[in-house]
Amino acid sequence: MTVPAPAHPRDLRRLVAAGEWTAPTAGVLDDYQQANLLVVPSAAADDFAEYCRRNPDVCPLLARTDPGNPELTYDNCTVDIRTMLPRYRVWQHDTLVAEPTDLIAYWRDDAVAFALGCSHTFDAPLRRAGIPVSHAPPPVYVTDRATLPAGVFAGPLAVSMRPVPTSLVDTAIEVTGRYPTGHGVPIHVGDPAALGITDLTRPEFGSYPGVPAGSTPVFWACGVTPQMAIPAAHLDYAITHLAGHMLVFDTLLDAVTPSVRTSR
């Protein structure tokens, strides 16, 4: 049975919490703020907050929770982190152990959740500017560029790629620059080898959509990046979103420019 597309983020979150929506969120409620997730033990939370501060284009911090509190608030929208993303990834002692549809069995008393801006946020504005953007999750690549380390967190930059008609690349840069909570302007335009990507047809996450004739690959920082820093952090546990399966807030990006908020 096909679930009808939700009309509002609260409808999507209701479906997700009920286990009726486990699919990616790309192309769904495009005009609303989407977010990546990272959950870490409270002992590592300040290190990760500093990692975000040092890498703001990669990790645009929207909100964080208090230790043990699964409720996170951003722009007056409060969500239960344990049940309102379609799929998660759970890490224990540097090893991926599960990709569940909720975190009820995995939440801990010292868990601190971070919501980070996502590039799905600017897909609809790109389409309105005449740039064709797939409704499927974009391919994600791990580059040879390092992020700035902070405490226990360090690792390579991950990027998402969207093919853009070459004549509209400047437009894509201008449009996405208006959305810092969606990673802002591209990290790189053109030859993927400049990022250490040797085979564009083989992303680490997602599927390669092709680059049509007359188009140029354009790369934006990606919220998968923190997942690349987990193994080296040697945490007892960590939790992230599954790539493409985002948290969707109630904020309309073109209606308001919210400030960073926390649940505190």
TrEMBL record:
Keyword rRNA-binding: no
Pfam families: D-Glu_cyclase (PF07286)
Keyword annotations: Lyase, Plasmid
Top-level taxon of origin: Bacteria
InterPro entries, per database record: D-Glu_cyclase, Putative_hydro-lyase
The keyword Lyase is assigned to this record: yes
GO molecular function, one term: lyase activity
Signal peptide stretch: none
Record family assignment: Belongs to the D-glutamate cyclase family.
Name of protein: Hydro-lyase
